[in-house]
Amino acid sequence: MPFTFSFYDFTGFTQWIDVTLRGACSPFWAVLWEMVIVGVLFLAFYAVVGLYLVYAERKVCAFIQNRVGPNRVGPYGFFQTIADLIKLLMKEIISIREADKLLFNLAPFIVIITSFLALAAIPFAKGLHPIDLNIGVFYVMAISSMGVVGILLAGWSSNSKYSLLGAMRSGAQIISYELSVGMSLIAICVLAGSMQLSTIVEGQRDLWFIFKGHFPAVTAFIIYMIAATAETNRGPFDLAEAESELAAGFHTEYSGIKFAFFFLAEYMNMFIVASLAATIFWGGWMPLHIPGLESFNHVMDFIPPVIWYVGKTVVIILIMMWFKWTFPRLRIDQLLNLEWKFLLPISLVNILIMAFIVLMGWQIGL
Amino acid sequence: MREIFNYFKSIFFALKSLWTGMKVTGAYFFKPWKIVTQQYPENRKKLKMYERTKGELVMPHNDKNEHQCTACGICQINCPNGTIEVKSVTVETADGKKKKALNKYIYNLGMCTFCGLCVKTCPSDAIVFSNKFEHAVFNKEKLVKTLNKEGSTLKKGAE
Predict the structure, then answer these.
(1) How many domains does chain A have?
(2) Are residues A321 and A278 in the same domain?
């Protein structure tokens, strides 16, 4: 198979790698090598994205508060988070005498592995999609809600009241907001007629789902944004690590690189929910197409899909940071009120309306 | 019916008030030239200082080397850290009256928390805070300062 590479379609490139590997060694080793390649790429991607999201958050927060933000390490403080990581790597990992040793050491890995697993199902560009599961949306939902196990274990095994309170709050929060995330995604799955992420992206070739589905899609998007912010334990829903009440919540007793794992996983979860929102509501790597404007659609096609994907994800991440640095933290009763009295009933009705629209064939651009 | 109406009203009111807050922070985010942080060591030459900055305590003297301190000691009483020590002498005026006069106004910068109670309570406005804030020295004895100048006298009519 000849070598082909294009920024618009990675299928040829990935197939070339596959064919070359299968030609060079037995199928077992070929699959193993592919897994190693994908794993190493993801590790690098994970580190870079995690570090630069922390940097971005600090800069965005600074600009919103009329400050400068990190600006000493490198130009515009560009290497600040790398320096922070090196510092955290060299710090002592303090072991707690009364802690449950096994669970205490296991918890950060559970948190980081679940966020790592969820990345696998995200389509980055055409042909750049590690596993195209036919229940991709379900898989991402299921995996990302496993992270709470790690948080609960961290809180329980630390043997500290702050950690336990933070973990319990986090558990209550994630269990309730998981419902809204699922319901708002189901509304779009009804519209797409599939749970496979590649099919969902292909279905937005003519028009993104947020425009295609009238107001139920917009409502679903708003509910998803609120619930996803809560699910990633970010402000204004950061009760699990409310600094002013609980020291640092579930990771109070952690230090050094284990603390960094929690920190990185938090930002990576934000990246995952943002890219899921971009994929499901804004078309993922699909360029912006408007039915009827042929020349406009053609110009949009010239921008590579990876850039579309990254751009949409970055915009959604910025919106989530904007939430965090604007709104005050909710109380636990307000948090549960918002979910059970507002978001859940609205999203249930929303699914009904969406199903009705799909049954009647009223989607825009159909 | 009214409850349902109020339910939806509360949702729209909530969204509206959230949007108000997001408009403010969003406007700041898109105006990076409005940053108020000063990058100190770089802009030392053209550092913008404000009147309210409490750098250190000073006693202003006019060009005739006169200050306004009557050595009443109210600042010393009000100082929570014992930063100020007013040393006074009793002098005899021309018409035979005995009066307190300032001998030495000792201010220990190292102990000052810059609360400003001394300036606030001074009845004759003899002391103020200056903007000078670079106080690093090699020896903490150098932080004990005498604020009244050599040979200065009380300003006429300041009693």
Answers:
(1) 2
(2) yes
